[in-house]
Amino acid sequence: MERNSVAIEMRNATKIFGSFVANDKINLKVMKGEIHAILGENGAGKSTLMNMLYGLYSLTSGSILVEGVEKKFKSPSDAIACGIGMVHQHFMLIKPFTITQNIILGSEVTKRYGILDYHKAKEKIVELSQKYRLNIDPDAKINQISVGMQQRVEILKALYRDANTLILDEPTAVLTPQEITELGKIMKSLTAEGKSIIFISHKLKEIKELADKCTVVRKGKVIDTIDVANASIQEMATMMVGRPVILNVDKGEKPQEEIPLLEIKNLCVRNEKNLLAVDHLNLTAYKGEILGLAGIDGNGQTEFVQALTGLMPTESGQILINNEDITGCSPKEVNVHGIGHIPSDRQKHGLVLEYSVQDNTILQSYNSGLYSKKCILQKNVIKDHAKKLIESFDIRPTDENKAARDLSGGNQQKVILAREIDSSPDLLIACQPTRGLDVGAIEYIQKSLIEHKKAGKTILLVSLELDEVMNLSDRIAVIHSGKIVGIVDGDKCDRNQIGLMMSGGC
Amino acid sequence: MLSNIALIIGTTFMYATPLIYCALAGVVSEKSGVVNIGLEGMMTIGAFIGAACGVYMGDPFLAFLFAGIAGGLMGLLHALACVSFSADQVVSGVAINFLGPGLALFLSRLMFHGATTTPSVTLSDKMPRILSGVFPGKSFLYYIFDNMYATTYIALLLVVITWFVLNKTVLGLRLCAVGEHPAAAQTVGINVLKIRYWSVVTSGILSGFGGASLSLAIVSNFRPTLVSGQGFIALAAVIFGKWKPFGALWACLLFGFAQALVIFLGQYHQLNLPTDLLNMLPYVLTIVILVYFVGKSVAPSADGVPFEKEQKI
Amino acid sequence: MEFFKRIKSFISSNPKLFPLISIIIGLVSGGIVLLLAGYNPFQAYGVILWGIFGKVSYLSYTIVKATPLILTGLSITFAFRTGLFNIGSEGQFIMGTIVAAIFGSMFSMPIYLHIPFILIMTIAITGLFGAVIGFLKARFGVHEVITSIMMNWIALYLRNYFVRVSWLAKPNSEQTKFIFDSAVITFFDKFKMSNEGIEWLRHHPFCKELLRAPTNAGILIAIVAVIVVFLILNKTTLGYRLKAVGFNPDAAKYGGINVNKSFVTSMFIAGSLSGLAGALQVMAVSHNISILSVMEGYGFDGIAVALIGGSTALGNLWAGIFFGALKYGGTKLQPMMGAPFEIINIMIGVIVFFVAMPKVIPYLISLFDKKGEKNAK
Fold it and tell me: What distance in Å separates the CA atoms of residue C54 and residue C41, rounded to the nearest whole number?
């Protein structure tokens, strides 16, 4: 095995969308048997780069070399043929299909006349699964297996196509600490076979733990490629953002007294499949604290929040705020009772993208006496109010008539934040408030949340990013299978302990 | 009594046949992620071309084939808009529903001296009734099969073929993948656009067949009122049939049965049912059935969503 | 060249012009089809234009034709802004004709009561008929396109039923009794036919031309409807709510808007607009209803009107008049030059087809650019 030969090289790779330069003359060299991290903020151009390497995007200019030979990728099949496999951040799996169907798709084994030979396909899948200890049941359907398992299916999909280079796009975003450790093991066993891994991430700690080399990308350009062993986390962070960053947030004091604001008693909620997604959940949030809710995706967080905000009916149990029962209230009534909500999917739930910023600021309050009189919208009042919010929350561009669609992700999130905080809710439910944002926006939003808390209000922070929960929360409740399995102190908690609780092993 | 049942079964198949073609057309198109409400227009052009070719050529199967090609060309237009230019699929379908009948009547007036109704295809040039005369007169099977045209058998065969292709072959697996999650299909090297093109064109061909099964079998000419909404009813059958070939077949048969029942009951004047209210039965039935069953059926995830090759994922 | 370039970049950067360009493409395509069929397209355009503007009476006919299309288009636009596709406009139109035929012929009232009475009954009944579609979607999740289509047929057969019931039917015919004069909104309907009217009109040729068509007050009601819809959509909380549902039902629900209720409300208003079109048609033009064997197409044409009008209230007004003009002017093709009237439907189809794909216009322009570059070389 030739360890020191180059597996993949990209030379001056450039991608331009319209007038936006997503990648500007990027040079990248990945050796065989190497775990090579691509570090960059959200929106730095990492995914674009990898989509070019995988044949999804064509290069505007520049070239790709596989084992020293220049290749042109017109579609992913060309990349696959050159031994490149990719695991996307949002898994490319077809939910109603079985694992086998997903794996063979595009590289099917057939009998005669294009008739599928599932039997042969399964044999190969089982063999590969055993070799890399992936533990996969080829007949299970995707919508029945866990997120971690789905990721393994994705890896197996690449291996099934004899991939020598594996691109993992933000692979840890949805995993528990334990699953991340498992993934690390799988990665090592792959590199031991001489395969290369390109590992895209903005999480410095993981890069430090897993990667050999690291190429830092900022605003579409390569800043440097470094040996991970010789760099500190702080150094890498500075390279990534272009200025020194504060890695730990000052989250301020805990509340002096424990006065309950939100009390949830034996809450049960059924999901769309009519299964008990929230199962006799009990939780109390105090005035003036940030209560984090940690958990793996799909353990009832979504249903819990939707029931809390009136978007989903509750099966049984009680939700009290300020000692008032709001169980079964409509979203409108919940809002009136002093609950604000930053939804996890800002484009799906948070905004009407076609509406202007101004119109989005009145989504809940359009028919309050403030903004309408006798069913007629008071455009001038709405406009002045929007202008005020744009100024105080630094929303750009400063044009209240701009459609929300035309704003950057960070500014869209600020519009939602502005709208929700402006009504000064006693309880602000913030779901994944910083997902997909760049560091500047993340800092701003976290700062705003802490300020809201300092004003004596309560925040329920629901996030899949354990780091974020740990950085901001005064207390952390861990949810598993629709139950709160434990509550720990935000200052004295241990990552691994929380991780264990998240996977139900405590 | 038995002969009445047999007659109703026979009539059910007769009315269901054009719907089966069209519903299959809908299944194929929507499984690949392209909503096709242009079925009606494609069917109309097929019905006209079928009748016109029948009149001029005299070979019903050749005419049937040409009807398919004509429908396929309309499908190509729909594909061009929906696949290549990410058009609003419903709007494009509406356009097809203007273009199809417009072209059919326009051509009819050109070819048949300004008439919108084509001359009749001679009886011997109509679709053959394959099992005519096989069963002894007045027997149960006689009433079912004697009057059944070849198009009905072809339709049933196509249901089986479509089912087989969708469920057992590479093409089917890829087609469903494209309709569920086109981006995922693309990442494993499947040409999403090509598959959608072929599906929509196939959908057009099937609709064209459906039209011809009206004008070459059930009646023997084309007239402006011939299709009148059957493409839309087929669309309902697709949903009711949960986007599955056999499901669609059952839905079409149910609708055909309702029609047969209307005709059967209409014969009994002593029942004194107002025919006009009786005529509503199939439509009311469809709504009632949809109300009871639709909650359980799920469209392909990417149905109706345009896909662009280099969209930002 | 520079001039063309500027036009091109102006067009590419103004998507609002795309419907206009689609119209041009549609008209040109119609011309090409006619050319292929052996007709002179310029003669055909000439005939259509003459058929619209040639005489005062033609202009009145155009307006008469356009009136129901403006309203059905408006109905489809309104539902569309709530994210609903109201193919059921056709059936709601038919319901409107039934309501007007029944309440217009059952009893007579003073005209200032009778007409508002019929209009209010139409709005209520056809609104409810439309709301059923919204309700079925809200309550059972049945797609509105499917229910709409079924409701169209139900309406059609209901109309045939009423045409034949004894208390409404005109004996020995497949039509209903005529509505009372107090329910007629045709201008000078009786006067036109009376002896003194005929005499007077002979001396006033302009008025005679103007009144040759069933010129009526419907257009005024249609314009009022356009204004009302414009105000609802753009100035009121109801419009804000319905549009939010149309753009993003998830976000609307999250913001506390009752999405299901919005579906029903929107379909009620859409239904009543289509119903008005039907009622006015009876009150102004036909004065009774007859057996239908097939849909008349006012609702389906309304879809094209709504799409060409860019789904705005004002756009609808122009698109309705445009469509009405084409439809009326097109009828002159057959008698004047033997060209099939259906060319109009082909043109409309092509227009809608291009409206469906806004991306094609920049693409076509870029094709022209490439060609230009090649020629320059």
Answer: 18
Q: What integer pLDDT is reported at residue A1 of this predicted model?
A: 43
Identify the closest residue of chain A to C232 by CA–CA distance: A376
Instruction: Encode pLDDT of B240-297 as tens digits.
Output: 888 999 999 999 999 999 999 888 887 776 667 788 888 898 899 888 888 887 665 6
For testing the chain C interface, which of A329, A341, A366 should be mutated: the one with the most C CBs within 10 Å? A366
Best of B276, B279, B289 to mutate (most C CBs within 10 Å, chain C): B276
pLDDT of residue B310: 63
Amino acid found at C91: G
Confidence class for position A60, pLDDT limits 50, 70, 90: very high
> HEC profile for A190-209?
HHHCCCEEEEEECCHHHHHH
| CB contact (8 A) between residue C359 and residue B87 | yes
Residues C49-88 pLDDT 10s: 999 999 899 999 999 999 999 999 999 999 999 999 999 9
Helix (H) or strand (E) segment spanning residue A478: strand A475-480
Q: What is the ipTM of this complex?
A: 0.90
Of the candidates B171, B187, B310, which has its C-beta nearest A114's C-beta? B171
Quote the pLDDT of residue C377. 44
> Count of CB contacts below 8 A, B vs C?
149
Q: Do C344 and B102 touch (CB under 8 A)?
A: yes
Its pTM stands at 0.90
Task: Give the pLDDT confidence of B186-225 residue by residue, as tens digits.
Answer: 999 899 999 999 999 999 999 999 999 999 999 999 998 8
Distance from CA of C246 to the nearest CA of A (A): 9
Of B81, B90, B114, the CB nearest to C357: B81
C-alpha distance from B153 to closest chain A C-alpha (Å): 24
A-interface mutation test, from B165, B181, B187, B308, most A Cβ less than 10 A away? B187
Q: Is B90's Cβ below 8 Å from some Cβ in C?
A: yes
A25: left (phi over 0), alpha (psi -120 to 50) or beta: left
Question: Is a pLDDT exceeding 70 seen at residue C179?
Answer: yes
What's the pLDDT score for residue B143?
85
pLDDT attached to residue C101: 96
With 0-12 / 13-18 / 19 or more C-beta atoms within 10 angstroms meaning exposed / middle / buried, residue A423 is middle
Beta-bridged to residue A377, according to DSSP, are A372
The confidence band for C373, taking pLDDT boundaries of 50, 70 and 90, is low
- Is C146 close to B286, i.e. CB distance below 8 A? yes
| Count of A-C CB contacts under 8 Å | 64
Six token digits for residue C245: 């549902």
- Asked if A367 lies within 8 A of C237 by C-beta distance, the reply is yes
For the segment A281-305, the average pLDDT, to the nearest whole number, is 92
Task: Give percent of chain A above pLDDT 70.
Answer: 99
Neighbours of A235 (CB within 10 A): 13
| Whether the predicted pLDDT of C1 surpasses 70 | no
Label each residue of chain C as H, E or C. CHHHHHHHHHHHCCHHHHHHHHHHHHHHHHHHHHHHCCCCHHHHHHHHHHHHHCCHHHHHHHHHHHHHHHHHHHHHHHHHHCCCCCCCHHHHHHHHHHHHHHHHHHCCCCHHHHHHHHHHHHHHHHHHHHHHHHHHHHHHCCCHHHHHHHHHHHHHHHHHHHHHCCCCECCCCCEECCCCHHHCCECCHHHHHCHHHHHHHHHCHHHHHHHHCCCECHHHHHHHHHHHHHHHHHHEHHHHHHHHHHHCHHHHHHCCCCHHHHHHHHHHHHHHHHHHHHHHHHHHHHCCCECCCCCCCHHHHHHHHHHHCCCCHHHHHHHHHHHHHHHHHHCCHHHHHCCCCCHHHHHHHHHHHHHHCCCHHHHHHHHHHHHHHHHHC
